[in-house]
Amino acid sequence: xxxxxxxxxxxxxxxxxxxxxxxxxxxxxxxxxxxxxxxxx
Length: 41
Hints:
Elements: H1 2-16, E1 21-29, E2 32-39
Antiparallel strand pairs: 1-2
């Protein structure tokens, strides 16, 4: 659920700052990670 919160917050903050893209980087554990690039509206 923390990933959903991070994405939602980043999109809201991106809209507030008028940026086109936001990048989310999350640690999965055991040396793995996930990154996502999202385009804001």
